[in-house]
Design a protein that fits this description.
Elements: H1 13-23, E1 58-63, H2 65-68, E2 77-78, H3 89-96, E3 99-105, H4 111-117, E4 127-130, H5 134-139, H6 143-157, E5 161-165, H7 174-191, E6 194-196, H8 221-237
Parallel strand pairs: 1-3, 1-4, 4-5, 5-6
Antiparallel strand pairs: 2-3
Helix pairs in contact: 1-6, 3-8, 4-6
Length: about 240
C-alpha cells in the first residue's frame, strides 16, 4: 500500500527523459538469466605507474524497506541512523570499516521515489550503495523507467564510486526478480559500477528458502546481516 514518502527536491523532467532514453530497449524478461561484468578501464599511454586505487572511507546508501530494515514507513533511514532491526547496513558498515555518513531508504519506495528523495547536495561520500527495485516489481514499473531512475540516483549522490546490489529473492515473483537482476548487472557494467548479488546463499530459483524470510519479500534479520557482511566486504574492496 502506497504511503507518503520524504521528498526534498522534485526530479527534473528533462534529466529523467535523458536517462530514460539512455536505457530504452534494455529491459529484462521474466525468464532472462543474463549476467553482467564490470571491466575497469586502464591506460597504456602513461609511462609512470598509476597511483594505487584509494579505498573508500565513507559511503551513503539508498534503498527501500530492506535497506531501512523495517516495513513501517514511519521507520525510514534517517541520515546515518538505522531504525529497523532487519537492515543490512550495520553489518555492512562493520565488515567494511567504511563509515555510513547518510542515506535515503523508506519502506515501500520505488526507484522513482528514491530519485525524487535524493538531493544532489545532500552528502559528500566516497561511495554509494544502491539496492532498489523490489517495489518496482510489485507495481509493474517498466524496466526502462527503473533503470533511468537508478542512473539518476547514482548521479544525484555525487559519489565517485557506486556499488549496485541485486534485489532480494521474491517468493511471489521469482522469475521477474531474476530478470530484473540480470538487467541490473548489465546496467552496472555499462555505467562502470560494481554489481553484487549478496543473496546467493538464500536464493532458491529467485525465491527465499524456508525460514529465510517472514513474508517472502523481506529477509529475516540474520539473513539481512549475512547479506550486509558480503556487501561490506565488497565495499571495502572498491577503489
Amino acid at each position: 500500500m502506497a504511503c507518503p514518502l520524504p521528498r526534498r527536491v522534485p526530479v527534473r523532467t528533462a534529466v529523467a527523459a535523458v536517462l530514460l532514453a539512455a536505457v530504452a530497449g534494455c529491459g529484462p524478461t521474466a525468464d532472462d538469466g543474463r549476467a553482467g561484468t564490470v571491466a575497469p578501464a586502464t591506460s597504456a599511454a602513461s609511462r609512470s605507474p598509476a597511483p594505487a586505487p584509494t579505498a573508500p572511507r565513507t559511503f551513503v546508501a539508498v534503498g527501500d524497506s530492506i535497506t531501512a530494515g523495517a516495513t513501517d514507513p514511519s521507520q525510514p533511514l534517517v541520515e546515518d541512523r538505522v531504525q529497523g532491526d532487519a537492515s543490512w547496513l550495520p553489518a555492512a558498515e562493520q565488515a567494511s570499516g567504511v563509515d555510513l555518513v547518510g542515506g535515503w531508504a523508506v519502506p515501500g519506495a520505488t526507484t522513482a521515489d528514491m530519485l525524487a528523495g535524493v538531493e544532489p547536495t545532500d552528502w559528500t561520500a566516497d561511495a554509494v550503495v544502491v539496492m532498489a527495485g523490489t517495489n518496482d516489481l510489485v507495481r509493474g514499473v517498466p524496466w526502462q523507467e527503473s533503470a533511468a531512475a537508478i542512473q539518476g540516483v547514482v548521479a544525484a549522490t555525487g559519489a565517485p564510486t557506486a556499488l549496485v546490489v541485486a534485489i532480494a529473492p521474491n517468493d511471489l515473483r521469482p522469475a521477474a526478480r531474476n530478470g530484473f537482476n540480470a538487467a541490473l548487472a548489465e546496467l552496472a557494467g555499462r555505467n562502470g559500477w560494481t554489481y553484487l548479488d549478496p543473496w546467493t546463499e538464500v536464493d532458491a530459483g529467485g525465491a527465499f528458502p524456508p525460514g529465510a524470510s517472514p513474508d517472502g519479500v523481506h529477509p529475516a534479520p540474520a539473513v539481512a546481516a549475512d547479506a550486509g557482511d558480503r556487501i561490506g566486504r565488497s565495499l571495502a574492496a572498491l577503489g
